Amino acid sequence: MTIFEWIFHYLQFWTWRKSTPQYGTNFFRNKSFLALSIPFLLVFISGLWSDDLRYWLSRVQLRLPFLLIPFAFSQIPPLSKKQIQGLLLAFLGIISINLLLVLINYAFDFDNINTKIGQGTAMPFLKMHITFSVMAAFAVCAGIELWLSRFFIRYKWEKPLIAFLTVFTFIGLHIIAVRTGLIALYLCLILRGGILIFQNRQYILGFSSLILLLAIPLAAYQFVPSFQQRVNYAVWDFEQYKMGDPDNKSDSERLISLKMGGQIFSDNKIWGVGYGDILQKSERFYTEHYPNLTAKLPHNQWLLTAMGLGLMGLLASIVAFFLPLLEQQRFRNFTFAGLHLLIFVFCMTDIPFEGTFSLVFYSFFASLFLNVDAINEK
């Protein structure tokens, strides 16, 4: 490129920058939007001490939504509370339709699917079942808030429809029986009950809700075959792990992956092995200690972060995760707090930031709430 071309491109950039003086500045001035981009930046920087640059580049590409989605939301005008609620209603509707299709398929092959669930497999016709269960749990939380705020777009019959879709999704989550989604959902509902008691002073409704939450899983175990099969399999799988027989058992293999991640982290505490080398190091561990098993990354996002980025990267990731929640006391908004609680539980049981669907889900809704100025309006 000649000196004249450099001058031309500089003048072109200068003209564009003068004509759009606010472009990009909203992103860099907002601590919460910047915090959402930290998971991308940490992986990007770890290329400095990663040997497998091809795998590192694939991880960098995967995490681009953490940079691009917050940046995009920071550039558009703030959405109104009603617009946010409309998007949440649309999300609830989409999740309900997908869940209905899964349950129809389950009804047509009831006995066979129950048998497979008892053997540790996910319900058929449900790709990315853990991610879907977490998204469905968020849809339930959103539905509760929409119903409590008496939201409707145009017609009053929309309010009972919102209640129906919320209850349907809640029941459907117990039928598909994905433990991560159920645990996360119940923690969010306990949080909502606590808000009713301590913040809204609605003691009767709050305590009644908490008692009901304790009774529902017991009833589900008695009357929902898929839920019962999932619980029974989890107990049996753990017993097999204690007996030293982890082969082809989902929960046992998860525990082994955590053991592997902890060992590699303990050997590389400060900066980790570099995110580009997490797969290579995992495969080496399995070859040495569990040659009969397929190598897996540790089923815990925080442990995987510590393994790849060390203690410094883990601390930066945790601060980046909680900063948007704490800034301006956004934790007072139940839907936003519920989203973070759901994702935190997800990170404890799986690796959502290593999958495009779950990563985009979190970064989209977190950015959506950060976009609106009056997030604490009630």
What are the key terms here?
378 residues, 2 domains, disordered C terminus, 0% strand, mainly alpha
How are the SSEs ordered, and which strands pair?
Blueprint: H1 3-19, H2 25-29, H3 31-36, H4 38-45, H5 53-62, H6 65-75, H7 81-108, H8 110-117, H9 129-148, H10 158-176, H11 179-199, H12 203-223, H13 225-242, H14 250-267, H15 278-289, H16 301-326, H17 334-349, H18 356-371
Helix pairs in contact: 4-16, 6-18, 7-9, 7-10, 8-13, 9-10, 9-11, 9-17, 11-12, 11-17, 12-13, 13-14, 14-16, 16-17, 17-18
Identify the quaternary structure here.
single chain
Proportion of beta-strand residues? under 5%
What's the shape?
globular
Structural class: mainly alpha
Percent helix range? over 70%
Please report the distance between the alpha carbons of the first and last residues.
56 Å
- Number of structural domains: 2
H/E series? HHHHHHHHHHHHHHHHHH
Helix segment tally? 18
Radius of gyration: 23 Å
- Which residues form runs of ≥5 with pLDDT under 50? 1-13, 374-378
